[in-house]
Amino acid sequence: xxxxxxxxxxxxxxxxxxxxxxxxxxxxxxxxxxxxxxxxxxxxxxxxxxxxxxxxxxxxxxxxxxxxxxxxxxxxxxxxxxxxxxxxxxxxxxxxxxxxxxxxxxxxxxxxxxxxxxxxxxxxxxxxxxxxxxxxxxxxxxxxxxxxxxxxxxxxxxxxxxxxxxxxxxxxxxxxxxxxxxxxxxxxxxxxxxxxxxxxxxxxxxxxxxxxxxxxxxxxxxxxxxxxxxxxxxxxxxxxxxxxxxxxxxxxxxxxxxxxxxxxxxxxxxxxxxxxxxxxxxxxxxxxxxxxxxxxxxxxxxxxxxxxxxxxxxxxxxxxxxxxxxxxxxxxxxxxxxxxxxxxxxxxxxxxxxxxxxxxxxxxxxxxxxxxxxxxxxxxxxxxxxxxxxxxxxxxxxxxxxxxxxxxxxxxxxxxxxxxxxxxxxxxxxxxxxxxxxxxxxxxxxxxxxxxxxxxxxxxxxxxxxxxxxxxxxxxxxxxxxxxxxxxxxxxxxxxxxxxxxxxxxxxxxxxxxxxxxxxxxxxxxxxxxxxxxxxxxxxxxxxxxxxx
Length: 549
Known about the structure:
The protein is an alpha+beta fold. It has helices at residues 6-11, 21-43, 48-58, 62-94, 96-106, 113-151, 157-194, 211-240, 248-296, 311-336, 342-350, 372-378, 381-401, 427-451, 486-501, 509-514; strands at residues 358-369, 405-410, 413-418, 459-474, 479-484, 505-508, 519-523, 538-544.
């Protein structure tokens, strides 16, 4: 058989911390406590056999009475040992696939994959296998014990039948408690180790119990079994009732005593069963809610601990797939945001940008480096790339500072927009402020370049406001967010005018009309630009001011 891979081998390194002793302890305790409960219930039953026992004991002296009680306790412990020893042997065989797998791991040897699969199946099936064995023992052993007593004339047939039936019913309770104790132990110790990634429901050959059945089992065992025990006891006592031996008052008193003993035993046992059943449902849900809370806070590395193959386990696996998808989506979102602005990214991912585009009013800004061709010719490609990256980074920060969105870098040119895809008032003011910020950023960049003996940069910025068609363009296979319309063309032509007029920032009259803030500026005479039929008026932007010139 093929061995497990190296990654799994590293995961098995903690096998020395895994112990199966708790499973043996649970098995023996379940059997021992069940026998003790049967012992107490039987001696609290007002049957002729028990009354005869008490009658004989009441005639004994105190030392003889103590000796008789000691004999009964010794018989009880002997019976527990007699039944517990084969129980341990059977449990060791049930746990054999798991212990063999752990032996390989503890020795530093990767177990065969088939052995690991068998151990995983046995871990999930363990409570079911043990309950089947335990219930069988609780049916078989009482029959052997009490009918042996009948054969040796120690009790009558009715008492033997009642004691056997009662022991079997008590066995149902203790077996159920053992089932959930074994399951809880496996979930705490074994399942996280053997199923680190969950997917218990995907394992073939594994038994499962639904949540509705868990609740039904608790309901049946907590209500039906005590009622049956009480009813059978009352019927049996009625059959054996001899009014000459026991008065009605004595009969009623003993029935009350038996009922109280039965109530106390089942009050405790059903309380334990209720706690175990509740935890088997609520703990996985609490773990799931805690993980969801961490994911909600942005921790996509968290995973739900899947500890069962029931509906909650399937929900946990589904939740982990969902969390993984969210993590991948966040990675995609973060990576996507490096290629487009975060605002455009969020609008695209949310589906708020229609494929056919939408008309919006915005302010468009174009920036272009001067004398870029000689710069490329006079410098190695590596220096060109580093210089362009430094320039684009500084300009992008200046634009982003004033809520502008860089749509694209084309060669040595930057296209940016203010007011789309997220509209805001004052986009014209924001664009002018961004252009002034770009001037300042370029001056700071040139100081650094000059200190390094590198040529300094110069650029021109054109700004124009108007209607644009904003949306996804490109092919069906690959789309891009872009602006289309005359406003974009005019902004580009205004940027070209900066070369002719010998300035670095020009804004159109349409942009100036929308300004709410004060800037120092010089108005230029109307000019014709390429691709535009009417003359346009532009203003040189000098600086921010308290009074607009």
